[in-house]
Amino acid sequence: MNYLGTENIEWFIEYISNNSTIDLTQFDNFIDPSIWAILKSKLLLEHNKLKIVPLSPKSKSYKYLTKIIGELNSDTTLPLERFNSDNRDESDLFAENFIKLIDIEGEEVKKYVQYIIRELLTNTIDHAKSITDVVCCAQKFPNIKEIEIIIIDTGVGFYKTISGKYKEINSNEEAIRKALEKGVTGTTKSKMYYKLYGQLKNAGYGLYVISEMIKYYNGKLWIISKNGSLMQNGNNIESKSFEHEWDGSVVVVRLPYETIKHTLNDFMKRITQVHSSNKNDIF
Fold first, then answer.
1. For the whole model, what pTM was predicted?
2. Would 31 be classed as within a structural domain?
3. What is the pLDDT of residues 195-213, one digit of tens each?
4. The domain containing residue 124 runs over which residues?
5. Backbone angles phi, psi at 264, to 5 degrees
6. Phi, psi of 197 (to 5 degrees)
7. pLDDT tens track for 63-75
8. How many domains does the chain have?
9. Domain with 197 in it: what CATH number?
10. C-alpha torsion 126→130→133→138, nearest 10
11. Is residue 26 part of a domain?
């Protein structure tokens, strides 16, 4: 295998779980930013236990590595950054820097990107209880007209966060699926809610909103939490448990930016009104 894409995330987690030496030379053609973020997070957690066999400077993956770690400037890649409660407020700057970098036409597309980054990043910092810094990066793929946003933590996981309130949840896989439901997750501190609505009435939507974006605009969403895994491709959602668990959670969003045709405000109104007559809805 000389290629590591988002479809290889589970395999890579098992690979770094089973090996104390990580040989990167076998992946010399392409390594997705999500893989680099996972490796960075693993190194933060177990820096004394892992040995890395580095890429050859002549490999295709090496040039991208210089971009993802910030050694080489790029007009498509926002390098790996680390966040914690001390620099939480800089998450807005991370979103703004990515928007400036990718230079996508259309103010509404930028608002979608801002929303996704701020929601995922602030929610993770606030609730994951990550042992190490939260690792994130973002990428524009101009050839396929998609943006990718990655957030990695080494925290308590979805099950620990959700099962206290929802006693019927019995596994990490079930917890991830539950997190996509309306009203289950979301930060109550995001400045984005104030900017868009002037109030916090939509706080709590979190991953529900992002999952709806994936459905509506035919994107992709990968979530791994401990040994639970979920992959959403448009309307199709598949989840499972796998053998080697990740020490925390991994969230990867792929969004085709040219398919976005509605304002974020209209989109939010549409999805927050769905099932509004349901008496069990806490909103």
1. 0.90
2. no
3. 444 333 444 578 999 999 9
4. 76-273
5. -65, -35
6. -125, -15
7. 999 999 999 999 9
8. 1
9. 3.30.565.10
10. -70
11. no
